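Protein fold
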Amino acid sequence: MFGANQDQSVEDGATAIQAGRDVLITQTGLSYSEVRDVALDVFRANFFQLAGPAMETAKARAQEITEDFLTKLQQENPNGFGKGQDPDFQHALFTVQREYARNGDKDLGDLLVDLLVDRSKQEQRDILQIVLNESLATAPKLTDSQLAVLAMIFLFRYTQSQWIGNHQILGEYLDRYVLPFSSKLVKNDACYQHLDFTGCGSIEAGEAPLEHILDHHYSGLFLKGFEQSEIVSREISIGLDSNFFIPCLNDSSKIQVRANNLTMLNQNLNNHNISTEDQEKIIELFSMGKMSNPEIREKCISIRPFMETVFDSWENSKIKSFTLTSVGMAIGHANIKRLTGEFASLSIWIN
């Protein structure tokens, strides 16, 4: 048993704890208010001094963006409050405060908050953390139109939804992910030259027409179908199996192969242990009666008229030749998430 003498000597800033029995100490990290105070201290210590009302405006904006970030952090990643003690994260936070203090653009502020929350989820220095740090510094150099361009290139060229099984779902998808950006796309070369300059991507020699991209990802939506007699004449042993054949989406008098694209078709064939002979015949049928690019364009516009503007912008600008870097992907991803509320994790594309 320990003695009864419990005299203590405590250094400045330390905490004295006395108890007659065991003591349990739990480390809970920084609280919301503590992180807020740290964040604002970082801003005051690093932001250059402006004169008069300009400094008051900058301070107010810094406080606003800090509150917005902490609110979203509490919702999406409460464990991220511990990042307030990390020097690299403080630097990232100050980047957001500084850029928002300079211009006060609310849309940009929301985008930076989304990027910073994603940054808070990274526990170690890896490629994703580095990309997010760079994205925080790059996004403020871009216009709203350039941010929209990155979102659309990322959505069409680098993502694919497995749930688009008919034209109604395609229309809903376009409403959610394309309509918010459709009127912001621009055709001038300077837009894409600047995106290249800022490290968001590069202008390639080749072209990727939007119709071709849609056909590649969602071929099943743009088929003209075939007669049921094709299954008999080709001697497909599984017959009109509903796992692989459905009424044609574009002509109910015909049928089509049930698949969004060739990759998904191959997966389905393998999952059902279909013979090699039948697989080859079904894949041939999947390639029958595909719509041409003009027909795909016309179909999409009939589903959602605003797609006419998107197709026109894509065809008559460098967007069809622009590929994204990891930074461009991160900014495009964050811009989509900003307006739609949720999206798949960025780590799917950058890891």
